[in-house]
Design goal:
By secondary structure, the chain is an all-alpha fold. It is built from four helices and no strands. Helix content is about 85%, strand content about 0%. The longest helix has 25 residues.
């Protein structure tokens, strides 16, 4: 279960990073383009990406511990 959560969190964090890259390079917000600018769906996507990014901080502790 924990490994599955790791993969989901990492995938959503990568999606968020790609979205920020598109914003920076092409001025294209993919989430807003797909779901609308700050609609409830896009806000949920942004919130999930943020939560997953925070969760991915725990990877540093697990890397150091050798897990």
């Amino acid at each position: 279960m924990n490994r599955m959560l790791d993969y989901v969190a990492l995938t959503l964090t990568i999606v968020g990073a790609i979205n920020w890259g598109l914003i920076g390079f092409l001025e294209l917000d993919l989430v807003a383009w797909l779901f609308g600018n700050l609609t409830w769906i896009s806000r949920i996507v942004y919130a999930l990406v943020g939560i997953c990014g925070l969760y991915c901080l725990t990877f540093f502790g697990r890397i150091r511990d050798g897990e």
